[in-house]
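lol ok so funny story. i was supposed to be doing the assay writeup but got distracted and ended up predicting the structure for this chain instead. priorities right. anyway since i did it might as well share w the group, maybe its usefull for someone
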Amino acid sequence: MIINSNPVKGMRDLSPKEVELRNYVISQILKVYKKYGFNQIETPCTENIELLSSGDGGENEKMLFKILKRGQKLKISNDQSENDLVDLGLRYDLTVPLCRFFANKRSKLPKEFKVIQTGSVWRAERPQKGRYRQFTQCDIDVIGLNSILAEIELILATSEALLEIGFSNFKVRINDRRILEALAKQSGFESADFTKVFIILDKIDKIGLDGVKQELEKSNFPNDCINSFMAIVTEATKSGITVDSLKTMLPNISQEVLDDLSRVIETVKLQADDKYKIVLDLSLVRGMGYYTGQIFEIEADGFGSSIAGGGRYDRMIGKFLKGNEDIPACGFSIGFERVISILEDQNFKVPSTKNKTAILYNRNDNYNLLCSSAQQLRTQGNCVSLELKTKNLKKQLDNLKEHGFNSFAFFENQIELVVKELN
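and the output, tada:
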């Protein structure tokens, strides 16, 4: 029987060229984040099932890869449910594991913890173009800082990282979950229905204003609630919105919420120095249910979906602590796979300051001389690969050039190493 050599459905093999691009992007992002004082951690790819099904992951929990108990713990009988057979799962994001990490190591961590995480996550969703069951996330979070300086630094660091890898003239969209709650409450919706209303509003980029209204009607919400809600959303999306006009539309919003929003927008706008924009967007929702304050996304011109997103989640970590105390927390995640896809579509080339040389050799060459020559070039800062010379030299040189080599070398009279540029 021939074993299927394709990767598991929804997952990918990555070629050297693809990995080179991913490593480069990660390195540039980390370089920027570390400049801002963030430190990198790692968490396991598996977590206890209770953590991953606690309700904090929202819709992602429906796409959880569950892991069966092992060995003697796995006792299969007809009267058992799935929950009796499962004790672990693959993480579906990096935020939930971070909260567990902080609660577990709180006494050993700084009071204000600035942290980087990069790594694979898994979601059992339907595979399609640009969506995979295993993909990389790239997060920064600030824990323990009850100040909008956390939001400001997260936005500035993420924006600078995107500039560093070649994005420009993008737009930071910002909103606040407390503003959305004030909007839903003023429109007359019951608090128990807020989440469903927000999920529908979050689709506005795909289905438009009419589509949002139709979905609210299909959900059998009262017409007066829908009409009031749509009137405000329509005004805000068609004519644009400012913090001052928001106060007129929703007079019940806390002045502190509005002041904080103004300060973040003003500070980021000044720091951006016209390299990118920041705008208030009342239709911005963010899908995760754990957000408690400001939320933000970054979108780039010409691309349909956001390339980064995040927000404040002050009530999440406390669930792991005695007394259920609120711990200030805020995070921003670059859509790593989306960014990589855009760069690949643009035929982005990883810049290299090093010379990449292939030494072509024959089977009867002096291998000691071959290795010594290669090592000498490496000590001079070159990347050197030993390549067996093929019959079709032109094709071989074309392939080397395709794989990033800019020079090749060979032995003349099996003694002298001659180096030539690849044109």
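Residues 16-345 form a domain with the BirA Bifunctional Protein; domain 2 fold (CATH 3.30.930.10). The chain has a mean pLDDT of 91.
back to the writeup now i swear
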